[in-house]
Write a structure and sequence with these properties.
Elements lengths: L8 H8 L1 E5 L18 E6 L14 E5 L7 E3 L16 H4 L16 E9 H5 L10 E2 L1 H11 L8 E5 L11 H5 L7 E2 L1 H9 L4 E4 L17 H10 L2 E4 L4 H5 L4 E6 L9 E3 L3 E5 L2
């Protein structure tokens, strides 16, 4: 057998060529984020020339600080409680004993290599640029997207819901994307329940929160989080970049995501990928 032969069909698909859509946002100082979390910061504690080895070599290094729900990230089940209880019924305060969640933290989220489906809601509704501020994406809207794309959902899928709001992420006024005054379109309680009923493993969106945020309300109520994280056991992925995927008309793909195994954390920064074959 030659050194390049393989019996692994996945490796063969890679050799035949794949296209990769990067769904993660660059981490930059001052990027839009939820005001509820510590901001991203990056600095160089050592620059080239600060220390020079005898042979003339020099190295720079970095330090970052950030909340785990800043930039593109995934929510662990420890992130949200309701009436003092987490998804497993445990007392939320007691579960954080020692300053970390040993049972439901980010380290318990298994890496994902699953079927991914983009539900391009604005395209299905005839407003391809995006949904209006504060618009609630309903089960009917999600079903329209499934039907128009011909992408029925299956148990275990990762479903990414495009509202079109992601196009505003790079606006010079970062408050535009946050949308506190205007509201932000997104899936409401009924839509979250519908997704959970399909048996999805995770649900993601191009907004700062996987929610319909009404004008002036901010994050005062988060019913989709309650349904998915506390009641139904569905992971949430937020601040995704879905515009390239939508522009290419890619609605079905292999979804790849690996959270950082931060022990006891309520979430993790991620860089998700949508992978498609070129064969």
């Amino acid at each position: 057998m030659s050194g390049t032969a393989t019996t692994d069909p996945l490796l063969q698909a890679v050799r035949d060529g794949v296209g990769i859509y990067d769904l993660g946002r660059p981490l930059t100082i001052g990027m839009p984020q939820s005001p509820n979390h510590p901001p991203f910061w990056h600095t160089l504690p050592r620059r080239h020339g600060d220390m020079v080895r005898a042979d003339g070599g020099s190295a720079a290094n970095d330090m970052i600080s950030m909340g785990t729900h800043v930039g593109t990230h995934i929510d662990a089940f420890a992130h949200v409680s309701h009436d003092g209880r987490l998804i497993d019924g445990s007392d939320a305060l007691a579960a954080s004993s020692g300053g970390r969640f040993a049972e439901l933290g980010a380290h318990t989220i298994a890496p994902m290599v699953r079927r991914g489906v983009l539900l391009d809601v604005p395209a299905a509704l005839g407003t391809p640029e995006g949904c209006e501020a504060g618009y609630e994406i309903t089960p009917d809207d999600l079903e329209k997207a499934v039907a128009s794309q011909g992408t029925p959902l299956a148990s275990g899928d990762v479903v990414l819901v495009r509202s079109g709001w992601g196009r505003l992420f790079g606006d010079p006024d970062r408050n535009v994307y946050i949308g506190r005054d205007s509201g932000v379109p997104g899936v409401g309680e009924a839509g979250a329940t519908w997704l959970a009923d399909q048996g999805v493993h995770a649900a993601g969106a191009d907004t700062i929160a996987f929610e319909c945020l009404k004008p002036g309300s901010g994050h005062s109520v988060l019913p989709a989080h309650r349904v998915l994280l506390v009641e139904r056991g569905v992971y949430i992925i937020e601040t995704l970049d879905l515009e390239g995927l939508a522009a290419a008309g890619v609605h079905e793909f292999t979804f790849v995501l690996a959270p950082l195994p931060i022990f006891g954390a309520t979430g993790s920064p991620v860089r998700p990928l949508a992978v498609v074959g070129r064969g």
